Batch of 3 targets.
Target 1
Amino acid sequence: MSKVLVPIANGNEDIEAITIIDVLRRGGLDVTVASIHESKQVVMAHNTKLEADVLLTDVADQIFDAVVLAGGMPGAEHFRDCKLLIDMLEKHDIQDALLAAICASPAVVFGTHGFVVDKQATCYPGFEGGLTGAEYLPNEPVVMDDNILTSRGPATAMIFSLTVLGNLKGYEAAQSVADGLLC
């Protein structure tokens, strides 16, 4: 069973975080939700309160098949500034794990730290200047380039999450979850 890390931070986009967690768990993946803060309690951008399974420090030495980042502000900035998370992303990138980000996170996190250099990527409109070294594809809801998967924002959260699932468990698994969700 594929293991997925879903970090969460205060200010993440509610729809994106919940959709990622829900779709991947429906698909039978082993999803670990980890707060990057000192508390498991996180308050999303629109005041949804979410409790993480663990703190990021609790799983810092583990290797996952994917690390999936929701967007939202200032959540993406908290991710960008979390040295432990960036170190984990770098370690997973070397292992060719799937690194996925939606909304502001492709630019604010991946762009700032060089994960999209010489890659095609997308992000929330207005953040494209942060996709340093990437070819910006503004009209694509989801963009995959090597092990980097990016998406635009809340409205694309479902297709983004299903794409993560499809990459980890196969098209049939993703299609089965999509059918159950009436997608």
Target 2
Amino acid sequence: MIRRLIIGDARTRSLTLAVAFGIVLAGCSQTASIMPSSNAAGQSGETAGKAAFSQFPDLPIPAGSKINVDKTLVFGSKPWFGQLALNASGSANAMFDFYREHLSGYGWQEITSVRAPTSILTYANDERVLAIAIRSATITGSEVTITVSPRGKPQPAGGATGVLPPPVQRTTQ
């Protein structure tokens, strides 16, 4: 009888530790709910959605997405630059299709896209370049990382203002 209580207590302690570990692990990643932003046709979500996502009016946002605060770093507002991390409820394939379908309506032009375990979409407009990485989440949905940076200016021909020095030429004597 005493042995049974000791074994039962060990199982209870193990179960309690496992539950506590799960709760701590779940609290490690912070997310914030967002509503879809205005789309190109001028339709908008609820007022709360506009306020929560007003800094990103030039991006389509899938319904039910949440910002991963721990992985997001954004500078400025008009225009903004940086990295926006989203936890989306749709599958990675659905998010890939969503962005390919909607980004052109927000003024972005596709440069290239690759559908893979981590899918990459690259777009540009006159001022900025947009790269989106999409991968399946651990349990359900997908993780979307949107990186926006200033667009580089083309360098004049001749390399006068290039970063690298001119190549060394070999002389024969």
Target 3
Amino acid sequence: MLDSYRDLIDGLLDTPSTLRTALGEPIAEDAPAEVANLLLELRVREAVNLRRLQAIMRHEPILLLAMEDEPEMRALRPATGDPTPEAEMATFSHDRSELISLLVNLTLRDWDRGVNHDRTGETTLADEVEDHLTWDEAIVAKLTSA
């Protein structure tokens, strides 16, 4: 079981470097609009996922919405200040680091922590992380092909 959780963390750790390899460092300001839009979605979804998992770990009563129903996802907006593709990637990378820090410090009991989901009913923190990694892999494929 522990190995499967490590695999999830390793998968999440791979994303920033995979994107840097594919998109360059820094990402060009004149990146195609499709790349900029996908980076925006990536950044916002990472922030939403981090917020959700932090709430679960703080034992806050939470009903998880489907990701597409989260208010931040419905109103995808560039980050304030500097909405360049590089700024979106930097914010994503920061939030991904925060997420990884949270995950590496979980106990086995934490991974199995139950939470209510508005569509699937009872789910676990591990299931949420696995869903996030699955989505992550899909958007990485879109970004590398864009």
